[in-house]
Model the fold of this input.
Amino acid sequence: MSEIWLQNPYIDKTRAKIVSCERTNGEFRVLLDKTVFRYKGGGQDCDKGKLLKNSTIYRIIDVEREGEKTVHIVKGKGSLNVGDEVICVLDWDRRYTLMKLHTAEHIFYRSLIKELPGSELKDIWLTFDDEKREGNGTITVESDRPLDWKTLTKVEAEVNKIIHENRSVKTYILNVKDLTEDIRVRDSLLKRVGQVRIVEVEDFDKAACSGTHLRKTGEIIFFKITSIERKGNGNVYHINFKIGEDALNFALTVSNQVLWKAQNLGYNPDEIIYVLEKYEKLRRSLSYLKTQLLEAMPSYIEKSREVVQNIPIYHCICKGFEAKELAMLGRKLKKKIKESFVAVLLGTNETTSIVAVSKGVNLAVSNVLKEFLSKHGGKGGGRPDFAIYGVKKSNNIDELLNSLVNKFKSELTMLQT
Ligand SMILES: [Zn+2]
Done:
């Protein structure tokens, strides 16, 4: 079988003859005498498209490699038989996007190892989303030191420089024994005897590869890293990228969002980084202050002590406290106060939260809260001695806490009589 894409990836259709055809589960597994479709492999997603037989259209939904064979997974109503003449038509947008992604990946990785020589390519995944009609690339690299945006910004600039220089990309065959040091080859490939296919980006990169690539780097148009994800605690990273129009759209959307937000906040766009850094510092000092406050709060709350039928009841409004922090405070109180007691805490942040705790008292605080808060649209739950609820933002929190404390007082009175 001849694979046309190996010689010329720009050919998007061909006449072919079916040499083998099996039907399973409503799908055909078709082998052709020649094909424009490349299988899934080497980190590149498969091509898709159509098979035309007379006026009937069949969809090619997957292309697999089986040994040396290319198996086309075909769907459609009608019959396909050995000897049938068909026309293969590629989904060209999908193929061309994969060609751009693959060529960009070669340039990207070469730029990366120039900047970080200790990096090793672990994996590549180049895909095309059929619904969004959008391509995505991911490379996984292991580096000998942490990877950051500063380094990647330099790498990204170099990739775009190579794209704008519109360098030529050549493909040729070499005997394994003729491979030179400057060619990137996977070790597994070196063990094989015979020949390898080399893809060369003019004066920049040579790599053994069997994917589909462009003729000129300028066809990529634009390259943009969209995110970095660190895997585990080591220096293994997934780096995601886009190319062409998808990359331009991404860059424009993100930059416009920054411009828009900067304008709304009354800053110049170039001040945004400064503002974010300042915000991060403030956030950290606020979190430190809250930790300090949490330590000091139990002693302060103890001052609210009132006794109802020999049982102390404590209460407090904790402004700026979220439910999580309020719960932490409840646990601290249980630890600090040695006698039997009931405590009601009300926190105000984006929402209003309520925590009720008890110790050594035969009163299910969760039931009291549930009953009381049902008319305030409260949601939550807990155990008999520890309950946490969220309620709609209240305009009068003093009144809310007051009536809640009164409710607990009357429950305690009933308990004792
Ligand atoms: Zn390649």
